[in-house]
Amino acid sequence: MSIEESKMKKQERLEYRGGRATGTEKLAEYIEEKAGVETRTVVPGHLQRGGSPSPYDRLLSTEMGSYAGRLAKEGKHGVTVALRGTEITYNALADIAGKMKFVPTDHQLLGVARSIGISFGDGR
After folding, report:
1. 24-27 contacts, C-beta under 8 A, 24 or more apart
2. CA distance 70 to 76
């Protein structure tokens, strides 16, 4: 994604890319056209998160589901369950909808990602 695209809202980006959600879809179309074989794109994150849940995943989802049930029973609607540190809590949707949460540019995981060749379109 270019810096220009990163400043666009999702719908603007979709229109800018000619209805394609990602740049890889355009590449797949090009390969399909030139090679004459069906080509599909895959989002690696979907595969990475598609494994069997760990015991931690199962416990956390049970706790969060139980908490959501209690919130509904108490009449607290328009909220989402969240994990803040080790505490299960909730956020009002009105407080979080449409807001961006930025990762600090000096965050350790950004350095790790760059060290394995991931680009964030900022020229680093």
Report:
1. none
2. 9
pLDDT digits (tens, 9 = 90+) for 62-104: 999 999 999 999 999 999 999 999 999 999 999 988 888 888 8
Beta strands in 14-86 (DSSP E): 79-84
More confident residue, 45 or 24: 24
CA–CA dist 12, 4 (Å, integer): 11
Strands, E assignment, 39-120? 79-84, 87-92
Q: Nearest to residue 60, comparing CAs of 85, 97, 91, 92?
A: 85
User: Whats the size of the chain, residue-wise?
Assistant: 124
